[in-house]
């Protein structure tokens, strides 16, 4: 656990989280708990593998070797009880690229693409950038937890949607959808002929009482109707290495996706992305177990702190991800006032809830994947902002 206590200076590494606050928030000197990367080093095996490859010194074109495919398949099988074949895999620089590629491959301009707000901002952006139509079936907040409005979901499907962008586990709400919920969504999509892109980038970051189910693993028919996206970037903090995986069992869909990647001129991953991915999936499991225990502890600290110091702010029950979705509505402030207090009084950079679409008003998202002392600093600033 002490590994995760190490405070690492990330300044002068072109870190978006630490050094791009001026561009994003209009201010410097903010305490950064916003964008979803961690302030931790990855497993030592990943660093060693990168160093070894760097020492070789020749960095010509690289393909994705069989050993990497096997490492991915073994990880998915062990962690998520889903047997996949190496031949089902395609690769993208990031999951956002995979989302955009799926939109280009499986829909036409003007087509309706379904999502469930509040949700990760690029879901909206990729639909709009590709001139498709955003169709929203908002999640319902019941008590302290999000659930799906299946009747509204079906209504939208009935009107015709080509693609559903599912966020599983859910960012920003931290829900780890149950098998029943996934099955119900999956069957409705099958009924109305709607493909599913399941963004499972947070699937390894699930707290111990919960279990992630890949939606494609539930039934044979569903496995043919889903494009599943995973990545070592979120799990092992490798976002700068730009490597993600699309798992597509259906041959026709996989060919369509692959052809679209080729049209983009995208053929393979960065050498270090491949090396890091293989090492992480082969040797990162013990590190991940420790990480989850550390995050659980950070989460509990935040919950206790809020209860004692800022009871007007409540945290949505977080079953997975290292992101906490804080309900600030009882403070009675507008989103502009929330932002101004956080930035000017607290000097704290959190993601504004409004970025996540309908239902995000009055919320902020806090990233707790940092040393406990950093969390404490952030919470003290939160208190300064609102007390
Ligand atoms: C749900 C979700 N999808 C995708 C991403 C980013 O993926 P990538 O960096 O691989 O494009 C994030 C990052 O926070 C995310 O939360």
Automatic annotation (TrEMBL):
Recorded coiled-coil stretches: none
Domain Aminotransferase class I/classII large intervals: 37-379
Broadest EC class assigned to this enzyme: lyase
Keywords linked to the UniProt accession: Lyase, Pyridoxal phosphate
Record EC number: 4.4.1.13
GO molecular function: cysteine-S-conjugate beta-lyase activity; pyridoxal phosphate binding
Cofactor(s) listed: pyridoxal 5'-phosphate
Top-level taxon of the source organism: Bacteria
InterPro entries linked to this entry: Aminotransferase_I/II_large, C-S_lyase_PatB-like, Class-II_PLP-Dep_Aminotrans, PyrdxlP-dep_Trfase, PyrdxlP-dep_Trfase_major, PyrdxlP-dep_Trfase_small
SUPFAM superfamilies for the chain: PLP-dependent transferases
CDD domains reported for this sequence: AAT_like
Family: Belongs to the class-II pyridoxal-phosphate-dependent aminotransferase family. MalY/PatB cystathionine beta-lyase subfamily.
Protein name: cysteine-S-conjugate beta-lyase
């Amino acid at each position: 656990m002490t590994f995760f206590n190490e405070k690492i200076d990330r300044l002068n590494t072109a870190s978006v989280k630490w050094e791009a606050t001026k561009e994003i928030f209009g201010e410097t000197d903010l305490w950064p708990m916003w964008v979803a990367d961690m302030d931790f080093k990855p497993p030592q095996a990943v660093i060693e593998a990168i160093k070894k490859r760097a020492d070789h010194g020749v960095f010509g074109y690289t393909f994705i070797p069989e050993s990497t495919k096997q490492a991915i398949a073994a990880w998915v099988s062990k962690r998520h009880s889903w047997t996949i074949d190496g031949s089902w895999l395609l690769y993208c620089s990031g999951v956002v690229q995979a989302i955009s590629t799926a939109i280009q491959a499986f829909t036409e301009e003007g087509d309706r693409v379904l999502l469930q707000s509040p949700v990760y901002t690029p879901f909206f952006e990729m639909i709009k950038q590709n001139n498709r139509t955003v169709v929203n079936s908002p999640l319902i907040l019941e008590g302290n937890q999000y659930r799906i409005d299946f009747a509204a979901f079906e209504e939208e499907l009935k009107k015709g949607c080509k693609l559903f962008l599912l966020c599983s586990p859910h960012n920003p709400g931290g829900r780890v959808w149950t098998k029943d919920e996934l099955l119900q969504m999956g069957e409705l999509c099958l009924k109305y002929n709607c493909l599913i892109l399941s963004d499972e980038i947070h699937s390894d970051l699930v707290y111990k009482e919960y279990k992630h189910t890949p939606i494609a693993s539930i039934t044979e028919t569903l496995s043919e109707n889903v494009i599943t996206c995973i990545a070592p970037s979120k799990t092992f903090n490798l976002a700068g290495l730009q490597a993600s995986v699309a798992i597509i069992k259906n041959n026709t869909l996989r060919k369509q996706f692959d052809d679209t990647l080729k049209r983009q001129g995208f053929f393979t991953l960065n050498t270090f992305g491949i090396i890091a991915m293989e090492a992480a999936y082969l040797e990162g499991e013990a590190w991940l177990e420790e990480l989850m225990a550390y995050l659980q502890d950070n989460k509990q600290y935040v919950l206790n702190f809020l209860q004692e110091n800022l009871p007007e702010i409540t945290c949505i029950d977080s079953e997975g991800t290292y992101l906490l979705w804080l309900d600030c509505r009882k403070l009675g402030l507008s989103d502009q006032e929330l932002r101004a207090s956080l930035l000017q009084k607290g000097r704290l950079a959190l993601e504004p809830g409004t970025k996540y679409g309908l239902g995000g008003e009055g919320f902020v998202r806090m990233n707790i994947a940092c040393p406990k002392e950093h969390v404490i600093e952030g919470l003290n600033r939160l208190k300064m902002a609102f007390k």
